[in-house]
Amino acid sequence: MIVCPVCSKENQDHYKFCLGCGSDLPRASGDEAKPLSTATPPAGIAAVSAQAVAAPAAPAAAAATADTAAPAPESAPVTAAASPAPPEAQAEAAPAPPADSPAPSQGVACANCGAAIPPGFAFCGACGTPIGGAAPPAAAPEAAAKVTGASAGAGKLILIKPDGTEGGMVEIPTSPVAVGRDAGGFFGEDAYLSPRHAVFRTQDGKIVVKDEASLNGVFYKILPNQPIEITSGTIFRIGQELILFEAIDQGATGPDDTARMGSPITGLWGRISLIIGKGRLGNSFPIGIDNVVLGRERGNILFPEDGYISGVHLRIHMEGGKVFLTDLGSSNGSYIKVADEKELADGDFILMGTQLFRIQV
Amino acid sequence: MEQARQFVCHSCYSPVPSGHKFCGKCGASLESNVAQSSDYFGALQSPGRAKLILIKGAGVDGMSYHLNSEQHVAGRLDGPIVFADDDWLSPTHANFYYENNRLMVRDEDSLNGVFISVRHPLPVPSGTIFMAGEQVFRIETSAPVDESPEEDGTYFFSSPHQDSAFRVVQILEGGGDGMVVCAHENEVVIGREDSDMNFPNDPYISGQHVKIEFSDGILNIVDLESKNNTFVKIDREKELSHGDYLFLGRQLLRVEITE
User: In chain B, N or C terminus with fewer CB closer than 10 Å?
Assistant: First the structure.
């Protein structure tokens, strides 16, 4: 229990800000279970939500929701470059990517290893050498972080600090750029970011973020009161909770046409589970009614201990055989994990590691 | 006593209401072949040593299966104790037999197993499967969540959680996992309402039906004097006592040892 020094409200030990007045709370001693907890995402989300919800214009939102499934023609080479290969590894790394490459129409050859590089790539997919041979991956964001003036950039990634102010920005150039802990700057201090976490690129004038198989992924904020279709395996975040949605597995009959016995599933169509560790699920809740509401105080599934979840926060419902997630105007928003990549529009918010960013095009 | 007056077809063992001349299931004539109200297996001389009484299931409730041979196979296809319509039963599901004059049941490597009623607090290993009402569960002990970073130094972001000694997993039809509750303060209560796992739509579950508790490193299943009992899947073989209840697939049977 932490007693707020400003308003004397009692707060739970893991709160960073007072639930009563929003003041910074002093750290309770001995509860530092995780490193770098000074900027946990819930705090960041909480602080910016008021302006965050208001700022993005509706047209941008429509664009964001309509383009969830952009094709990823060059996904294989980018993945190959995820960990820039040391020189001695080039020989074995080189042969594979060209075979997977989707026949670049006007690709260039890597100055280092000679592999073909599809247009639009900032790094060689085979050996990781930056195109042009200039800066290592880390240099790009760092350099860009200082830039504020107009340039050839397609957009900006603006860090939103826990108090809601802007904490710096990264220019997103027209060529792909990787962000992650290796990029240094404000990325370098976030232990929940993978060394190479995501790649931003421009495609048809839009910014696309691609999760580079990072440990914790990239999450985008959904707009309130707009149902977003989700599929089995979708992961989302509300408050401090990381939640997995799965469709109910009807299962197959065993050998000899014997059915696997179990609890009745009549009417059940999904379940949500709390993710409590890598590959570990905690409590799970089957969903058998058409309309399930998650909230701190009211609804079907309650999180009374999570002060970053609104009283009524999120709705999951089924309609016409499809499942939808709707943020019910929550204070801190609801975030869906980017499955592979996602087109972003001006004003969109994304979470990476423990940090919140706003996209500016 | 209506049920007790029903007959059983000698050809397919289906129940035949009294007065019918042909079996509704297989069409066999019953004229010269009318079964007695209860079927005797093996040696027909005496009603003998033990019997199983069908309490609830796809067959004729109240029907008795006398166990007068040395072995009595039960299953969906293989008899003499056959429940052809129960797809939770394997073709050969279980065997009731006598060993040193004790009645035993053996799970014949069936898909779904044989369940027996729990009378007293029962210590069980992790992985035990049990039933309460219409619900099927699995108990699992759980190791603490690994909070260490990945090799590249990245920490995993997860929901807040507390270490929990074990969790109870609802098993759904088809084999998937349903509701899961991680034990809080080393016990999980299952029931219709006001429990840790609630099943308000299950008519066969009691308000507070069964408790799983973990103490001194041991998991215990404690039936909370439920109306319909708690059933635990047997490991392989189990001695049966008078008054035991068994679930084979959807068939609920009571053991009566008369000798």
Answer: N
> Do residue A306 and residue B160 have CB atoms under 8 angstroms apart?
yes
Q: Which of A203, A202, A184 has its CA nearest to residue A193? A: A184
- Pairing between strand B218-223 and B210-215? antiparallel
CA A281, CA B158: separation in Å to the nearest integer?
10
- Mutation to test the B interface, candidates A196, A263, A265, A273, most B Cβ within 10 Å: A263
d(C-alpha A44, C-alpha A23), whole Å: 13
Q: Which residue has the tokens 């970073």?
A: B149
Q: What's the pLDDT tens digit per position in A129-179?
A: 565 533 333 333 433 433 333 445 678 889 998 888 888 888 888 788 899
Residues of A in contact with B181 (CB under 8 A): 283
Residue whose entry in the numeric block shows the structure tokens 């609804």: A299
A210-229 pLDDT, tens digit each: 999 999 999 999 999 999 99
- Residue found by looking up tokens 């035949």 in the block: B16
* Beta-carbon separation of A181 and B153 below 8 A: yes
Instruction: Check: CB of residue B237 under 8 Å from CB of residue B97.
Output: no
pTM of the model: 0.68
Two tokens at A146? 């200082």
Tell how strand A291-295 and strand A301-302 pair up.
parallel
Q: Collect all residues with Cβ–Cβ distance below 8 Å to A197 and sequence separation of at least 6.
A: A178, A179, A180, A181, A187, A211, A212, A214, A218, A352, A353
- What the block records as the tokens of B242 is 């008078």
The span from the CA of A225 to the CA of A328, in Å, is 5
Q: Which two tokens stand for residue B230?
A: 């708690």
Q: How many CA atoms lie within 13 A of A211 on its CB side?
A: 20
- The pair phi, psi for residue B249, each rounded to 5°, is 60, -125
Q: Which two tokens stand for residue A346?
A: 């001006």
For residue A50, the one-letter residue type is A
Q: How far is CA B118 from CA B130, B131, B170, B223, B226, in A?
A: 10, 10, 18, 7, 10
> Tell me, what's the ipTM?
0.77
Would you call B91 helix, strand, or coil by DSSP?
Answer: coil
Q: Are B181 and A273 in contact (CB under 8 A)?
A: no
CB-CB neighbors (< 8 A) of B156 in chain A: 192, 215-216, 277-278
Q: Which residues of A touch B166 (CB under 8 A)?
A: none
Pairing outcome for strands B102-107 and A322-327: unpaired
Q: What is the pLDDT of residue A117?
A: 65
With 70 as the cut, is the pLDDT of residue A321 above it? Answer: yes
CA dihedral sign, ordered B67, B71, B76, B80:
negative
Q: Using alpha carbons only, what angle is made at residue A216 by residues A224 and A236, rounded to the nearest 5 degrees?
A: 25
Residue B258's CB is within 10 A of a number of other CB atoms, namely 12
Beta bridge partners of B190: B197, B210
Among the listed residues A170, A226, A167, the one whose alpha carbon sits nearest the alpha carbon of residue A355: A167
Assigned token pair, A259: 């059915």
B164: which residues sit within 8 A by CB, 6+ positions away? B142, B182, B183, B184
Identify the CA nearest to A194 among candidates A336, A352, A44. A352
Q: Is the pLDDT of residue A68 over 60?
A: no
Which residue of chain B comes nearest to A261, CA vs CA? B173
pLDDT of residue A74: 35
